[in-house]
Amino acid sequence: MNKNVLTNVPVIRPIKNGHLLYEHLGIFTADWHEHTQGQLIYAENGLLHLYVADYRLLIPARYCAWVPAHTRHKLISYSADLLINTIFLEVAQEDHPFYKQTGIYQVHPLLDEQLRYAKHRQYHTPDEQTESCFYHQLKKLLPILCTEKLLLALPAPQSIQLSKIITYLSENILLRHSTSEVARQFGISERTLSRLFQKEMGMSMCFFLKTFKVMKALELLDAGKDNICQVSYKLGYDSVADCCNFFQEILGYSPQIHLQKKLPVLQ
């Protein structure tokens, strides 16, 4: 696969319960599609962009995403070393709220062992009874082990007005933005600006900027061309310490830990 080209990967159809996809996909795109099964996606290396309805989510390495059955979504990777492990599970009979919500989660050690076993199945196919037990156990474990969503999701704005504001913020990331300055720029009150963000994004403008910058920082660090100091400068942070603090606030660990690929172990 040419590492410099965004290759279109065809969607697998039909997919049976327990279908496993373990591949080095690298840079690719999978157009909008949906599956009749729920989809557990684990990124071993690289970053994976997940688009679901009006949300854009980012899956860092060693995190997993759950995409409910019959959920229209698409996947994009700009990481040449992207390695993903995907399992499709039949969850129509499962009534836990977890199965109905898209989310990104840090992988618990027990879930990591389950994923390792799933990968091993490619080369050593177990008997049908063992397979059935594995699917049953995995489905029951997911709501227990995936409890705290990672806040790396940005909703799409619904109004033209907020779309213009977010485009302005995104294209002027080096500037220090305040609600008063942005409100004045677009001829609205601070109160109206705050209401727009809360109503359409479910977050404040400040939190949007924090999340957006952390997502951009992950992309820059994943590209491997910039160190933390350079990333801090490119994203308009006042200091490296500010960059690290925001990273810690959103992800729960520092950019240094991310680069070392030594994520804190979940208990």
Element-level helix/strand string? EEEEEEEEEEHHEHHHHHHH
Number of strands: 11
Radius of gyration in whole Å, from Cα? Answer: 20 Å
**How does the helix and strand content classify structurally?**
alpha+beta
Mean pLDDT: 85
Classified by CATH, the class of the largest domain is: Mainly Beta
- Categorize the overall geometry: globular
Distance between the termini: 38 Å
Keywords: Transcription, Transcription regulation
Domain HTH araC/xylS-type: 163-261
InterPro entries: Homeodomain-like_sf, HTH_AraC, RmlC_Cupin_sf
Protein name: AraC family transcriptional regulator
Describe the 3D structure.
The chain has 267 residues and is of the alpha+beta class. It folds into two domains: 7-145, Jelly Rolls (Sandwich); 158-260, Arc Repressor Mutant, subunit A (Orthogonal Bundle). It is 39% helix and 21% strand. The longest helix is centred in the C-terminal third of the chain and has 19 residues, at 205-223. It starts with 6 loop residues before the first strand and ends in a 7-residue tail after the last helix. The mean pLDDT is 85. InterPro entries: Homeodomain-like_sf, HTH_AraC, RmlC_Cupin_sf. This is AraC family transcriptional regulator.
